[in-house]
Fold these 2 entries.
Entry 1:
Amino acid sequence: MSAVYDCNRPETRAEGLAAAASAVRSGRLVVLPTDTVYGIGADAFDSSAVGALLRAKHRGPDLPVGVLVGSWSTVDGLVLGVPPQARALIEAFWPGDLSIVLPHAPSLRWDLGSTRGTVTLRMPLHPVALELLRDVGPMAVSSANVAGRPAPTSVPEAQDQVGESVAVYLDGGPSGEPVPSSVIDLTGAEPVLLRAGAVGAEAISEVLGAPVKTAA
């Protein structure tokens, strides 16, 4: 049976984070609050756990799972290289609502779906998520919804969709408006905004010093 922990209370928050960390390390799924919507997460390096995450969402590997990190420095060990444009965006918007696509380090043994040698990285601006990430390391995280249904903004909404497939639910209260993170691809010759979300194209362009193309 899934366990739910109220992370707005110090005593149950500590207990919940410990239970979530134990679940992640043992290959189980957790639901956690982020600065956008509630996410369903697993150890990014456990392919079986990532597969369970995709099954819980009724989603195939054709839509790969992004990775959340708990610090800027974690990125260096996950990608082939961090170009100046990525550094500038990280400094400007992390922790926050910008996901960055980069070529992943070829030495990494993970299976996040059909990534074609890339990984989508983000550092969320939420204390519960950051504390868990800093404890367990990078997590594969996607919105805690079944494919085709709205992304949840509360634990009850997440429970209604992914139910007992999740071992631990960390309840941080309502997340507010379900605005997704923006996604920018830095794997090509020029930056491409794949998804417009919480961070606008103008703000990204200002940091990069040039207009940003948007995906067709």
Entry 2:
Amino acid sequence: MQTSASPQHAGLTTHSFKTIVVGGGQAGLAMGHELAQLGQSFVILDAQASIGASWRNRWNSLRLFTSAAFDALPGLPFPAPSKSYPTKDEMADYLESYAAHFALPVHCNMRVDALSIQEDRYVLQVGEHRFTAENVIVAMSISQFPKIPPFASQLDPSIVQLHSSSYRNPGKLPERDTLVVGAGNSGAEIALELAQSWPTKRIWLAGRDLGPSPLKFDNPFSWWLFSHVFSVSTPLGRALQARKRAHGTPLGRLKPADLSAAGIERVPRVTGTYEGKPVLENGQRLDCALVIWCTGFGPGFDWIHLPVFGTDGYPIHERGIVKDMPGLFFLGLPFLSAFTSGFVGGVGRDAHFLAKHLATRAASHW
């Protein structure tokens, strides 16, 4: 690393690195491990106050949808029974211990405000600091900001609203008839927890019934299948990728029967409002007093001031490599190379591939 004052940017200190990894979650830490194994010089910048904070800040009862056998990062097994499903705090603890075990150079409270390029180096603006690098790996989750439909503002002010990112447990909320919008894994699990905690209240779950996943991520064959057969290099994988983007992911741990047994009422999608009440696709109005939006997140790539995005807002890449912008990489995106790319246990394979590519690129510059 080199540090110097920058006359072109008065008041800013410029820090120069060979490679900068943006994001200190599971993807960034896996990338750090692979770069270190190949003897590459790098630093990891993370916006959170501590490693694993993004996991700790999620709802209390959250467990991973993959069993512990498939939740490890490269070089360090997950410290839990292989068939158990780790809690969010166990995941956060593991990430902290992983960074410490491999002495990874993670710098917290370092939110990157802008990424651009000047001449042959990438420039990252981090508060009052300016970083430059030959290589940048964007290893951030695409779940950066809550997505809530615009018509939510038209609901009656008496209806309490929150996004799943703000949900913690039923005890933090008023016990009311509740509409959970979004029938994916998060919506289903939150709806079930509310129904079990509030047996006298009506709980509606709105959204397309995605059904259960045909295979569970709790055996080696399933993991191999979703890592190699359902990949971007096969017709089956590309078909699944398109379906996942259009319709979401089937339920991983729960079954539709579990929701019915708890008394949860399945209803169609919410399409708007009428007289302050949510309106369903079939025209039905629901008289609810609480709405939890489990409607996903936006990627939050607006800080990247580079022409690397498609019309859908996602980066154009091949297995994380941005061909038109040498030295720029993405890691941790859903279906980066296969269905498992977006899972904790899948980022290591993609990180290994990118680290080898980066090392080869570095060697060719000598």
